[in-house]
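Ops channel
N.P.: pipeline sanity check, posting one input/output pair.
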C-alpha cells in the first residue's frame, strides 16, 4: 500500500477522475491518505480521517512512507482552530494559509515537517473545547458542496469540522453521521451540541445541523446560519416556511 499527505492548504477530492467531476470533499493541510490507484493525471485515494474515497490531481500528491503514515495514525497531529493560520514554507520563503482543522503533522515545537519540507506555524496551536465559539465562527460561510472550510462548506462538512475541533471524529456524509451517537427522544430533550438530521420525500437523510438549544439550530444551507428548530423540522424566518423535515436527533458526548 502507498500513502500520501496534503502539503497544500486544501485539495479538492472529486467523485471521478476529471476536472469537471463534482467535488465530494476536500483534504486539508497535513491530512494523510491511502493511495488506491494511479492514472496518468489522477490518483484515487481513501482519506485516513473518515475513509472517504475519491480522486485528486496527480500533481497534488506528496507521498508518505508507511512508517510515517502509521505514526500519524497512532499519534494524531495537533490541529489549527483559527479560521486562518499562517504557515511559513521555509524552502521557498512563501506563506500557506491553513484553514481551520488543518493537521500539523510531525510537529516539533512550532515547526511541522511534511516530507522534506518544513512549515513554521505562525499563530496558535492546539485544540479548543469551546464548541459554541467554533460553530459560531462559521456563521455566513457560503454553502459549497463538498466544502470543509470557512471559504465554503456543506452541512455535514460543517458538523464534522466543529466536532473534530472538539476531538470527536465524525464520518463525512450526513447519513453516515446519523448512524453514530444515541437517539434523543425529542427536540424538547435535546441540548446544545446534539445533531439533528433531516430527510427528503424518499426518506433519505440529506441534511444535518447542530442544535443550539432554545429552539434554534445552526446549519449550512445557502450559508451557515441560525434558524428555528421544532418537532417538525427547520423553520426559516427569512423564507417564512419549513425548509427541512426532522428525522432524528443524536447525541455524541
Amino acid at each position: 500500500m502507498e500513502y500520501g499527505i496534503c502539503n497544500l492548504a486544501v485539495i479538492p477530492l472529486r467523485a471521478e477522475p476529471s476536472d469537471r467531476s463534482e467535488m465530494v470533499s476536500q483534504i486539508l493541510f497535513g491530512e494523510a491518505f491511502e493511495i488506491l490507484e494511479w492514472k496518468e493525471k489522477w490518483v484515487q485515494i481513501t482519506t485516513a480521517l473518515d475513509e472517504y474515497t475519491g480522486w485528486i490531481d496527480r500533481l497534488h500528491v506528496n507521498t508518505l512512507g508507511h512508517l510515517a503514515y502509521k505514526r500519524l495514525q497512532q499519534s494524531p497531529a495537533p490541529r489549527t482552530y483559527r479560521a486562518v493560520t499562517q504557515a511559513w514554507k521555509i524552502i521557498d520563503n512563501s506563506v500557506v494559509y491553513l484553514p481551520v482543522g488543518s493537521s500539523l503533522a510531525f510537529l516539533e515545537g512550532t515547526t511541522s515537517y511534511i516530507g522534506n519540507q518544513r512549515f513554521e506555524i505562525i499563530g496558535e496551536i492546539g485544540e479548543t473545547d469551546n464548541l459554541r465559539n467554533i460553530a459560531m465562527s462559521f456563521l455566513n460561510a457560503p454553502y459549497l458542496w463538498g466544502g470543509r472550510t470557512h471559504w465554503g462548506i456543506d452541512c455535514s462538512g460543517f458538523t464534522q469540522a466543529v466536532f473534530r475541533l472538539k476531538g470527536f471524529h465524525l464520518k463525512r456524509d450526513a447519513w453516515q453521521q446519523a448512524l453514530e451517537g444515541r437517539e434523543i427522544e425529542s427536540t424538547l430533550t435535546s441540548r446544545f451540541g446534539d445533531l439533528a438530521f433531516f430527510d427528503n420525500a424518499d426518506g433519505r437523510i440529506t441534511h444535518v445541523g447542530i442544535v443550539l438549544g432554545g429552539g434554534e439550530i445552526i446549519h449550512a444551507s445557502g450559508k451557515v446560519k441560525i434558524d428555528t428548530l421544532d418537532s417538525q423540522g427547520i423553520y426559516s424566518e427569512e423564507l417564512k416556511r419549513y425548509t427541512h423535515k426532522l428525522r432524528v436527533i443524536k447525541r455524541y458526548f
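N.P.: looks fine end to end. The mean pLDDT is 94.
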